[in-house]
Amino acid sequence: MSTQWLKARQTKYAAFATVYILVVIAIVAIANVLGDRYNKSYDSTSNKRYSLSEQTAKIVKGLKQDANITYFNQSTRFRDGKDVLDQYANLSPRVHVKYVDPDKEPQLAREAGIRNFGTAVVGLGSKKEEAKSMTEEGITGAFIRDLKSNTRTVCFVTGSGEHQIDDTDREGLSRFKDLLGKDSYESKSIDLLQKAEVPTDCTTLVVAGPTRNYQQPQVDAIKKYIEDGGRGLFMLDPPLKIRRAEIADNDALTSLLQSWGVTLDKDLILDLNPIGQIFGLGPQVALVTSYGSQPIVNEIKRTATGFPLSRSMDIKSTDKASVEKLFDSSSTSVATTNLSSPSVNINDPKNKKGPLTMAAAGTYSTGKENSQGRFVVFGNSGWVANRFIDFNGNSDLALNTVNWLSSDEDLISIRPKPPEDRRITMTRSQLSLVRGTSQFVLPLVIVFAGVGMWWKRR
């Protein structure tokens, strides 16, 4: 009977062990299936360096057809592109990634025109675009070029002291031009003094901080362009009368904007918000952290932007133009009309109190079907200059503005952020102090502590 009981108990334990093993195998199998189908990760870096941006997610998730990404590299180096390409595949089931070794399948590489290892080609339907780099900017740029079949040209007016797109100095717009290129826009300069007519290939017209007055033929050309359904970005600085920084009133151009419902004030905004000091900004730089609901600013509501030497404006819709505010200055800001002196009395009772409107966007009814003029007005131009466009959310705001003006609303979002430079800058004396502390002081403290403990126990 004892033998039968032992056998019964062994049988029971064997059954329990079998069930336990089967359950463990089932859990592991289910976990692997879920892990393969739902690839989730968490990016703990401060600027989400290892995650795809909102812009990329918006573009990829909005695909209406399948996209094929073909990565060409040696078989042993497929891992070089797998991490970033898997992120695209995880965004949408429409994205399919294929890895090709040009040495093993030379015909595919030859057909795609591949010359270098580590190259990705993005295909949408019959269109194929090579990624300019194996970064998010390069791959997403290929998606954008696939989606946008027509050439989009941003024309910058020149000839009256505006910022220049080929100028790499602090006040130039070369950085803005590069950013537009990443969104597949072409940029060129036009001179309305030579020919008072906006070229037909201009998708968007940009007036970036003229320091001299526009002549009436120039203004008439701009008026005709917008009121015929064109798109324009106007960035006009305060008419400062300070020596070496004198800026013309540009009454003819501001009168045109006023006819569309935007009245630019002849003043200078001073921001007394102490938060600006955290960013190292003085009162001449207006810090914006609150925005309206217009599509240009709807995606950057959690991002600060800065505007050096800005003016205020009043907006009011007209019979043909509908105007909407983009953002105001802070409630602690003031606006002075003293534009001829570098020293300003912040407590002057004549100063206007904030918040003050700093930017607006509007549409103009042309009376034609499927034709609408669009314009955006900023009371400052320095915010897109090389020295300031990389400040916090300025670059996103600049590109979102051009996207909206060009009817590319699907591109409006927050772009990929470059890796943060988290280096610590030290003087020679500080470096010597850190080196001495880490190499000598701390080790000696540990040694003396150990000797003291040994002596105490002894």
Description:
It is a single chain. With 458 residues, the protein is α/β, with parallel strands linked by helices. The chain has helices at 2-37, 54-61, 79-91, 106-112, 136-147, 174-182, 216-227, 251-259, 275-278, 295-298, 394-405, 428-457, and strands at residues 67-72, 95-100, 119-124, 127-130, 153-158, 186-191, 204-208, 231-235, 262-264, 268-271, 285-288, 305-308, 313-315, 321-328, 333-336, 352-353, 357-365, 372-378. The protein contains 12 helices and 18 strands. The strands form 5 sheets. The chain has a 7-stranded mixed β-sheet with strand order 6-5-7-8-18-17-14, sandwiched between helices. The protein has a 4-stranded mixed β-sheet with strand order 2-1-3-4, sandwiched between helices. Strands 10-15-16 form a 3-stranded antiparallel β-sheet, with no helix packed on it.
